[in-house]
Amino acid sequence: MLSPIITPFGSWKSPITSDLIVAKSIKLGGVIFDNDDIYWLEGRPQEKGRNVLVKYSSDGEITEVTPQPFNIRSCVHEYGGGSFLVSNGVVYFVNYQDQRLYQQLPHQDPKPLTPENQCRYADFVLDSSNNRLISVCEDHSHTDRECQNKIISIEFKTGQIITLIEGDDFYSSPRLSPDGKQLAWISWNHPNMPWDGTKLWLGNIESDGSLKDIKWIAGDINEAVNEPKWSPDGQLYYVSDQSGWSNLYCYKANVNNVPIFPFTAEFSYPHWVFGLSTYTFTSKEEIICAFTQEGRWYLGSLKILHKQLSILEVPYSNIASLDSQDKKVVFLASSTIEPTAVIHLDLDLSQSKVLKSSCKINLDTGYFSQPELIEFPTENSLTAYGWYYPPQNKDYTFPDGDLPPLLVKSHGGPTAAATPSFSLKIQYWTSRGFGYLDVNYGGSTGFGKAYRQRLDKNWGIVDVNDCINGANYLVKEGKVDGDRLAISGGSAGGYTTLAALTFHDTFKAGASYYGVSDLESLAKDTHKFESRYLDRLIGKYPEEKEIYEQRSPIHFTEQLSCPVIFLQGLEDKVVPPNQAEMMVNSLKKKGIPVAYITFEEEQHGFRQAENIKYALDSEFYFYSRIFNFTPADNLEPINILNYDS
Fold first, then answer.
1. CATH code: domain of residue 495
2. Structurally, how many domains does the chain consist of?
3. What is the pLDDT of residue 519?
4. For 596-626, how does the pLDDT look when each residue is reduced to its tens digit (9 = 90+)?
5. Could you tell me if residue 579 is inside a domain?
6. Mean pLDDT value of segment 465-487
7. Which helix (H) or strand (E) holds 548?
8. Residue 566 near residue 595 (C-beta atoms within 8 A)
9. 204, 211 Cβ separation under 8 angstroms
10. Are 369 and 9 in contact (CB under 8 A)?
């Protein structure tokens, strides 16, 4: 056995290349049962991010269902989700290019159900009794005002589209009772986001398909309700955060509803997209559910009558997209050493198997860093959390006295969460000799409502302080080099990155992926779904315009004195390119090293293989120049302005 080679951090040769990441990886989503068949979406970077529906038959065969050039993806709320449905082999889906709803019968080509217009669709349910689909609709035809959201029906025979519910700013989750006689749904209004406060409604379906006796049954402006689902015996369940934790409830008329099993855990994700599923019924007495504590997810069996929750022993730390058929459960899951996969669990046999993995790799685990949960002190005598991945590569070690550079990841949302799940992108960094800190700053999901609300009125302060304090904690512990600290983030995480680099001097370099530099521009230019999001995170606009200016890095570039790389999709409507361009131009004038990488045909998040690869390698190359180490990879140089090599 060869001894590890002594080489400086950052210069380690790794088999986890950007080519491996994009060539072998797909994005999995939306796994569901249809009788004995199982369906899921595959997002394929190799096909320019096309989302394809595939079927796993009971005989174990996997077939591609939707043909070229169809791309299943909804643009409702810009982020989409809830873009397909399968019932008895008939597929209904939203096509990305035209946002029309299509029906695809077995062994036939898809046929459009909706006309060519300015409407988008998501989160639909089949109402077979009335021969129609019920769907969320987002109408963009009124150019003189913001788009209109509503719940509509689409009649199969006539093609007629009828509005069932309208008047609120947003709608989601239309769910039909097993007997087809009742419809539940969720709505909310500005300035709330769906994790701030929503209302759950219930209405009776009349013989003509209309809704009658509509009543508001749960939720409020300060109580977030999501994931309404009907049990096999016709009871309506949902998730609510009224206790301070997102727990499961069952609706009982004229009763003060309480959690089925009160627990200091979260049974839900923030609903940025439609169609999320964290629980499913195997019978009227049992719920199989996913829940999270301190950033780690678990799979549980909840016995409804006895109000008992038992943890199912599965080797996964991130779990999502649950569905069931009798005592068989499918879901998406990953662990610290296994990539995201479609998992089939037979509860009767206590056996699970992988139906499809998001990437096929055959590497020694000696190249993989194992995360450790860290708790560290932060502002106001509070505690914050993160997952630290130390450098790891079985072929290399470091010179005596050397400490690794650290890359701090500020996640997006900012309601998202860092989980200890397998990521080739993280291992890309650690296998080259970087430490990697994935921070669950105040505002992250999974630590209770109070933890998430730490960010209210404090975006750009709490998140930044927690990222800084996490890095300083690792420096104090002697685990990383305090002179080689970098921070990177996308979207909201990109704002945290830019704020940390501008208003503090802890980090020596950073990378902003489609990040926000001008909060005022974001408030004025963004789409409807997020147009009032900053009311809670920053303050009302324009009434509190001064706060927006005070926290916008673009106005304080004179305080920014370290290099930054910007990576931006040119078709991004959530954070338009001008946000990055204003920042880049300011840094150019100041003489600070800066790189600006743009990608055509990319929006908010990169989906094409060649762009994902180039962005990752460019960020690594940028740090190699700034931190003065020589990569082992033969990387394509990028243009770094104001940099004298």
1. 3.40.50.1820
2. 1
3. 93
4. 999 998 988 888 889 999 999 999 999 999 9
5. yes
6. 98
7. helix 545-550
8. yes
9. yes
10. no
Residue 607: per-residue pLDDT:
82
* Confidence bin at 645 (pLDDT 50/70/90): low
The mean pLDDT of the chain is 95
- How many whole angstroms separate alpha carbon 131 and alpha carbon 127? 6
User: Phi and psi for 423 in degrees, rounded to 5?
Assistant: -145, 115
Q: Tell which residue, 170, 151, 149, 408, has the closest CA to residue 272.
A: 170
Rounded Cα distance, 456 and 465, in Å: 14
pLDDT of 1 above 70: no
Q: Evaluate whether 294 touches 446 at the Cβ level (below 8 Å).
A: yes
How large is the angle between the packed helices 492-503 and 462-476, nearest 10 degrees?
Answer: 70
In 342-436, which residue ranges form alpha helices assigned H by DSSP?
A: 424-430
- Give the strand pairing for 509-513 and 564-569: parallel
- The reported pLDDT for the residue numbered 295 is 86
Confidence at 168, pLDDT banded by 50, 70, 90: very high
Cβ atoms 172, 185 nearer than 8 A: yes
Residue with tokens 């662990």: 335
Residue 167 corresponds to which amino acid? G
The CB density around residue 234, as the number of other CB atoms within 10 Å, is 12
Distance CA 248, CA 463 (A): 29
Strand partners of residue 636? none
The whole-angstrom separation of Cα 461 and Cα 450 is 16
Rounded distance between C-alpha atoms, residue 495 and residue 553, angstroms: 8
Q: Which domain holds residue 465?
A: 5-16+363-626
On the question of a cis peptide bond just before residue 259, with omega within 30 degrees of 0, the verdict is: no
- Is there a domain that residue 185 lies in? no
Say if residue 254's pLDDT is above 80.
no
Q: Which residues contact 334 (CB under 8 A, 6 or more apart)?
A: 316, 317, 318, 340, 341, 358, 421, 422
Greatest Cα pair distance in the chain = 79
Helix, strand, coil % over all residues of the chain, rounded to 5: 20, 35, 45
Q: Are 262 and 278 in contact (CB under 8 A)?
A: no
The DSSP code for 639 is -
State both tokens at 183: 């419809």
Question: What letter would DSSP give residue 81?
Answer: B
Dihedral sign of CA atoms 268, 270, 275, 276 in order: negative
Instruction: Report how far residue 536's alpha carbon sits from residue 370's, in angstroms, rounded to the nearest whole number.
Output: 36
Rounded CA-CA distance 299/289 in Å is 6
User: Residue 493 belongs to what H/E stretch?
Assistant: helix 492-503
Task: List, for residues 100-144, the tens digit of each pLDDT value.
Answer: 999 999 999 999 999 999 999 999 999 999 999 999 999 999 877
Which helix (H) or strand (E) segment is 467 a member of? helix 462-476
Query: 409 falls in which pLDDT band (50, 70, 90)?
Result: very high
Q: For 270-371, where are the E strands, in sequence order?
A: 279-281, 286-293, 296-303, 308-311, 318-325, 328-334, 341-346, 351-357
CA distance 97 to 74: 9
Task: Kindly report the backbone phi and psi dihedral angles of residue 534, in degrees, each rounded to the nearest multiple of 5, phi listed first.
Answer: -75, -15
pLDDT tens, position by position, 316-335: 999 999 999 999 999 999 99
The whole-number pLDDT of residue 622 equals 98
Q: Is residue 596 part of a domain?
A: yes
Q: Is 559:503 a contact under the CB 8 Å cutoff? A: yes
| Torsion-angle region of 207 (φ positive above 0: left; ψ -120 to 50: alpha; else: beta) | alpha
> For residue 372, is it within any domain?
yes
